Amino acid sequence: MRGYVLRRCLLALLQCLVVLLAVFAVGSLLPGDTADVLRGELGTPEQVAALREQLGLDEPAWTRFGHWLLHLFAGNPGVSLTTGLPVGDDIGRRAGVTLLLGVPALLLVTVLAPLAGTVSGLREGSRLDRALNTAAVVLHAVPEFVLGLLLVASVSVAAGLLPATAIGMEADDLLARPAALVLPVVVLTARHLCDLARQIRAGVAVQRHGEVAEHLRLLGVRERTVVLRHVLPGALGPAAQQYARCVEGLLGGAVLVEAVFGFRGLGEGFVEAVQNRDLPQVQAYALLFTGTAVLVNLVADLVAHRLAPRREVTV
Q1: What is d(CA 249, CA 102) in angstroms, rounded to the nearest whole number?
Q2: DSSP line for 185-246
Q3: What was the pLDDT predicted at 231?
Q4: Model pTM greater than 0.85?
């Protein structure tokens, strides 16, 4: 087990480094840079060149990448080339908004998906199972931005029940008006809840009719004990990796949801950084998203490895 943990941690570090190199390379190959964006079409070539030298963009790519890594290891992700403010301050301000969306969505997925998947798997073929499967397939088929627009049109515009947008609101404003969070959280939750519930449902159905469960029933073990100690642990191993996909999906879905509902979160910040060719910001956002994805996948792999059934052989 320790050897597996060490190998996975080293692989996670390697993945982060590769992604950082890829992001830096792609950012360097994009047409134009921050100087072009700041000067715009009215800037002369001399002004653009002077600004590029002032921002250090005329240095070789490997030199700029090395400087950025040294500052990163020192706890300084850099300074925005467009605003002149520390990148960490901008990310910290926007992270509060994204967390207000992501944490409730993740909690709902964590609680509702195992419940729905377990009930559906234990009642395989019943009306409840068919109803839950039908709802999951329908919700999964609707893209997040389409579901968001449908909810805005029906719940906000037509019925006037909930706010349609959060334009101009910061984290403190959203805490004072939590109604603005309802529709975005529903949109973020829907697809990932369906994916995880279906994964757990399939695992429960397979484990429930497996050889181990049948043998335990023949030995007189109560059904409740069979389900709690053998069926659910066997189904949650693969579901742990699907749960990691859900966390990644919540980060990616935040970009669309924040655009639809006008939230100034990490998703919008990343899009603005790409549009402005602000490489320090792009790298910081990429590191945040990649680090989160690598961490949750690492934890999911360790959990799945721990829950995987093993057979001890004595020689």
Answers
A1: 10
A2: HHHHHHHHHHHHHHHHHHHHHHHHTSHHHHHHHHTT--HHHHIIIIIHHHHHHHHHHHHHHH
A3: 83
A4: no
DSSP 79: B
Residue 271 to residues 116, 259, 276, Cα–Cα distance (Å) = 35, 10, 9
Name all contacts of 300-308 with Cβ < 8 Å and 24+ positions apart: 300/240, 300/241, 300/243, 300/244, 301/8, 301/241, 302/4, 302/5, 302/8, 303/237, 303/240, 304/237, 304/238, 304/240, 304/241, 305/1, 305/4, 306/1, 307/233, 307/234, 307/236, 307/237, 307/240, 308/237
What pLDDT digit, counting tens, does each position of 201-254 carry? 888 888 888 888 888 888 888 888 888 888 887 777 777 777 888 887 777 777
Amino acid found at 269: G
CA distance 14 to 122: 41
Distance CA(126)–CA(113), nearest Å, equals 18
CA 194 from centroid of its chain's CA atoms: 16
Q: How far is CA 209 from CA 22, 129, 162, 227, in A?
A: 46, 16, 45, 11
Cβ atoms of 34 and 57 within 8 Å: the answer is yes
Beta bridge partners of 86: 79
Instruction: Identify the three-state secondary structure at position 86.
Output: strand
Q: What is the dihedral of CA 49, 50, 54, 58, to 10 degrees?
A: 30
Report the mean per-residue pLDDT for the chain.
Answer: 79
How far is Cα of residue 181 from the mean position of the Cα atoms in its chain? 18
